[in-house]
Specification:
Layout: E1 12-17, E2 27-32, H1 33-36, E3 41-46, H2 53-65, H3 67-72, E4 77-82, H4 86-96, E5 103-106, H5 111-116, E6 119-122, E7 128-131, E8 134-139, E9 142-148, H6 159-165
Parallel strand pairs: 3-4, 4-5
Antiparallel strand pairs: 1-2, 3-8, 6-7, 8-9
Length: 166
């Protein structure tokens, strides 16, 4: 599992881009994580899946509502991360009002989740391999804080908990 002081692993994430520009076409675009985090402070929070109960009622809405507080504490970007495809992450972000606030980053094959060591096996619940609920603060690609929830919990990865760590 990724720990404080480690550099994020190399890998690709996908994001649905609504407006063509800056070398990105409309639709799903792949991004190299190491390029996205360079010279930035990023809060990344991961969750089991888009449109799931706790994720939709508490986790994502907390970060959306607190985006100005994160920016005031020097955070350049906040990412929502899940093992879903870019289309699903985008639709969920639109439904939740995340556009322009929280980047909806997709790890459709769970490859990046595996590289982080944060997989959650929900195959017995017919959901496949997912991501554990977590949040981390990343400064110039290096993890400065990481909080992984115990199974079935939602405490240490909330927006409020991470704001208190900044």
């Amino acid at each position: 599992m990724i720990t404080v002081g480690q550099t994020l692993p190399a890998g690709l994430l996908t994001e649905f881009v609504e407006v063509e520009g800056n070398g990105c076409s409309v639709g799903p675009n792949q991004f190299e994580v190491s390029e996205l985090v360079k010279d930035k402070t990023i809060v990344i929070f991961g969750l089991p899946g888009a449109f799931t109960p706790t994720c939709s009622a508490k986790h994502l809405p907390g970060y959306i509502s607190q985006i100005e507080a994160f920016k005031a504490k020097g955070v350049d970007e906040v990412w929502c991360f899940a093992v879903n495809d870019a289309f699903v992450m985008h639709a969920w972000g639109v439904q939740q009002g995340a556009s322009g606030k929280v980047r909806m980053m997709a790890d459709g094959s769970a490859a990046y989740t595996q590289a982080l060591g944060l997989t959650l096996d929900l195959t017995t619940r017919h959901m496949g391999v997912r991501c554990q609920r977590f949040a981390m603060i990343v400064k110039n690609g290096v993890v400065s804080q990481v909080a992984v929830e115990a199974a079935g919990q939602f405490e240490v990865s909330s927006a409020e908990a991470i704001l208190n760590l900044l």
